[in-house]
Amino acid sequence: xxxxxxxxxxxxxxxxxxxxxxxxxxxxxxxxxxxxxxxxxxxxxxxxxxxxxxxxxxxxxxxxxxxxxxxxxxxxxxxxxxxxxxxxxxxxxxxxxxxxxxxxxxxxxxxxxxxxxxxxxxxxxxxxxxxxxxxxxxxxxxxxxxxxxxxxxxxxxxxxxxxxxxxxxxxxxxxxxxxxxxxxxxxxxxxxxxxxxxxxxxxxxxxxxxxxxxxxxxxxxxxxxxxxxxxxxxxxxxxxxxxxxxxxxxxxxxxxxxxxxxxxxxxxxxxxxxxxxxxxxxxxxxxxxxxxxxxxxxxxxxxxxxxxxxxxxxxxxxxxxxxxxxxxxxxxxxxxxxxxxxxxxxxxxxxxxxxxxxxxxxxxxxxxxxxxxxxxxxxxxxxxxxxxxxxxxxxxxxxxxxxxxxxxxxxxxxxxxxxxxxxxxxxxxxxxxxxxxxxxxxxxxxxxxxxxxxxxxxxxxxxxxxxxxxxxxxxxxxxxxxxxxxxxxxxxxxxxxxxxxxxxxxxxxxxxxxxxxxxxxxxxxxxxxxxxxxxxxxxxxxxxxxxxxxxxxxxxxxxxxxxxxxxxxxxxxxxxxxxxxxxxxxxxxxxxxxxxxxxxxxxxxxxxxxxxxxxxxxxxxxxxxxxxxxxxxxxxxxxxxxxxxxxxxxxxxxxxxxxxxxxxxxxx
Length: 668
Ligand code: ADP
Ligand code: MG
Fold this sequence. Notes:
Layout: H1 28-36, H2 43-52, E1 55-59, H3 66-76, E2 84-89, H4 92-106, E3 114-118, E4 121-123, E5 130-134, H5 135-144, E6 151-156, H6 164-183, E7 189-194, H7 199-205, E8 211-213, E9 221-225, H8 233-247, E10 253-257, H9 261-277, E11 285-290, H10 296-301, E12 311-316, H11 319-322, E13 329-334, E14 337-344, E15 349-356, H12 359-367, E16 375-379, H13 383-387, H14 403-411, H15 428-440, E17 444-446, E18 450-452, H16 454-460, H17 466-477, H18 481-491, H19 504-511, H20 520-533, H21 538-543, H22 548-567, H23 579-589, E19 594-597, E20 604-606, E21 612-615, E22 628-636, E23 640-647, H24 650-656, H25 658-663
Parallel strand pairs: 1-7, 1-8, 2-5, 2-6, 3-5, 6-7, 9-16, 10-12, 10-13, 11-12, 13-16, 15-22, 21-23
Antiparallel strand pairs: 3-4, 14-15, 17-18, 19-20, 19-22, 20-21, 22-23
The chain binds adenosine-5'-diphosphate and magnesium ion (MG).
Keywords: ATP-binding, Helicase, Hydrolase, Nucleotide-binding
Protein name: RNA helicase
InterPro entries: DEAD-box_helicase_OB_fold, DEAD/DEAH_box_helicase_dom, DNA/RNA_helicase_DEAH_CS, HA2_WH, Helicase-assoc_dom, Helicase_ATP-bd, Helicase_C-like, P-loop_NTPase
């Protein structure tokens, strides 16, 4: 790795975060900070323009103040005419942290004037006027209220991310706007915001909407490439971090981009271990992970000022690319990779894969080092490799399984999906594949047009992917909702099982008492029951290598799903210890994710695509090799791995979907 000759001169720390505000008192300091943002001089002009326009596009560098300030400006000038301003975010972490900050700036308690709403969490009240929410939440709301009547302004933030939900929202919001106009209902303003985007493409789609450019502050960033391709980016990132840490004065913070929770937690641990064991006299390192599933108190740590004489290092996913701004960053370490969902409509497989970032993403990452003064960015790839990155990221809608989205569009009353007003159309094959999937699950019927069945309508009521939703409906029939609710909740959060590299044997030994020869789902259920029996005791979690945080989230998710069941008059009954019934329900819901052991007993063949798949080493079934399994997801690393498996009887699979298995009969 090449290093700079010498670092930029050190600068005094200038920022403190006000964590508490008493009543309506807003600190002068916070107000001063608002006025110091690059967006502030444009305040009047922005208010005027948005006052005038139905739709506008606003572009400005990350950190200029778009997300936190614009909604406040619009509220302060009452452009919203007393109705709610919705601000969508692709990520829940961003929605939560930003609303906290804005509530502080407004001097109100979170959930009052300023609130947020994300899946499984609604912190708003009838007083809420600025509502930060995930794009997925606004889409769900639109099912009940397609005209979005409670909002007068919808801000679609981080539009360049092109998540599947944002892309669908584009069309849904546009439709709500024109329908409201036609019906003479209060107009709906649409504001599309981003740090970077293909302006012409967006403007053309939004009826030639004008583009407002914000002046940003960006200092030069020196870019260093790896002299040769790196085989292990986590390792290289850590090496680079310590190279910087050794030579640079403290209080110049580092932002490191990795791909996901497990990888980040393990890197954080390694960094802490190295700091502890080193004899060298280095400044203390404050290490903060940052990823979507992190609970909010831990997220806020990232924004806390670095103590004098220390260095903060933030190990983040691509969430730190544009959606949250962190002060004090001087150095960026870019692994050049990101975790992305990739769908192959031919095989029907939706894979979570670590892939190369696009040039646009690499540029955004680099930019994070030059927010307050000149900085440096270390790219852990060569310049030749960079040249081969694609220019921009392919919209998620063109690379993901569309079954959830198609189910939602149908629930919204949009049945002609192929002709829906998409900004970039997904391929017809992937729409057809999604409709097929929903058809196999009994959620749609194909008559003159595609229609939602009563089953499909019930599935759409749950904020879950269709297969999980279907599994809940089946569990209701089999009187085991109590158990399946638990399993579905645990599958909806990040892993509750911890296996630290350094204590692997110990962790596996502790887990032994939960292990089930019936598979991971049954083990998860055992863990949950034991956790409830000790009332979520912290020591118990530590001793048993259970992630208490994720366990709590799962409990919360379960409560919300339970509430939906109650609202829909589903009796929540238990099947006691009858794990066969539980597995049967899982087989009925996940028959499309089934695999059979190959004749030689080494690998598996997926029944839907006839592809070779393997059991993930983390599964309790890794060494068992049952004849038939269903799995929750596929992950592609060196091989195509099935994760979260359950042993099933092949007869259940053909019972679940006789037509589906006519061609691909299990056992043939
Ligand atoms: P943009 O959306 O244009 O990228 P933001 O409105 O998110 O910009 O951020 C503007 C500024 O507000 C940032 O530079 C950052 O200093 C500050 N800020 C945002 N969120 C927080 C937070 N949770 N804590 C402290 N400061 C924050
Ligand atoms: Mg922003």
